[in-house]
């Protein structure tokens, strides 16, 4: 025998009322962390057709789109329908120091993983310290005076 909980009906009604205006793109839960020279973004997209997942990079903007469609069964009387169909959208500003040409993505078991590599020039590096003499890359003492003046302009 099934138990009847009137508060469950009130919760479902409240969910239906508050979620109705959200027919537009839905957010997807995600984690973002740095592991060495890569940022790793993991986004939950359960029940998504992998062919509908789209990852775009435009300048420093990363956009993830996906679509979930549920089967439309005729002559069916729904008892409960909590899974929704619709569009999912997430946009992130990547900022500077990202190698946007090498971003890659993989979708497996309902999780989209996006590998975002740090650019070479943004990686920490050691600077050589010299003693005495002139450090490499500096202007030597016998350089023409005109060249020195132009470099200060």
Automatic annotation (TrEMBL):
Matching SUPFAM superfamilies: HSP20-like chaperones
Read off the lineage from the record: Bacteria, Bacillati, Actinomycetota, Actinomycetes, Micrococcales
Which CDD domains is this protein grouped with?
ACD_sHsps-like
What Pfam family is a match for this entry?
HSP20
> What is the organism of origin for this protein?
Leucobacter ruminantium
Belongs to which family? Belongs to the small heat shock protein (HSP20) family.
- The SHSP domain is annotated at 21-132
User: Which residue spans adopt a coiled-coil conformation according to this UniProt entry?
Assistant: none
What the entry lists under PANTHER family is as follows: HEAT-SHOCK PROTEIN 20 FAMILY MEMBER (PTHR11527)
Q: What is this protein called?
A: Hsp20/alpha crystallin family protein
InterPro entries linked: A-crystallin/Hsp20_dom (IPR002068), HSP20-like_chaperone (IPR008978), Small_HSP (IPR031107)
Q: Which domain of life is it from?
A: Bacteria
């Amino acid at each position: 025998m099934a138990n009847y909980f009137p508060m469950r009906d009130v919760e479902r009604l409240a969910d239906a009322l508050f979620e109705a205006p959200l027919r537009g793109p839905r957010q997807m839960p995600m984690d973002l962390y740095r592991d060495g020279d890569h940022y790793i973004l993991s986004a939950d997209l359960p029940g998504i057709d992998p062919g509908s997942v789209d990852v775009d990079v435009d300048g420093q903007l990363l956009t993830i789109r996906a679509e979930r469609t549920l089967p439309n069964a005729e002559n069916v009387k729904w008892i409960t329908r909590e899974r929704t169909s619709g569009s999912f959208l997430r946009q992130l500003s990547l900022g500077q120091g990202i190698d946007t040409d090498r971003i890659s993505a993989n979708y497996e078991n309902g999780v989209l993983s996006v590998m975002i590599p740090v650019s070479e020039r943004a990686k920490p590096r050691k600077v050589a310290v010299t003693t005495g003499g002139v450090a490499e890359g500096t202007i030597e003492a016998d350089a023409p005076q005109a060249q020195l003046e132009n470099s200060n302009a």
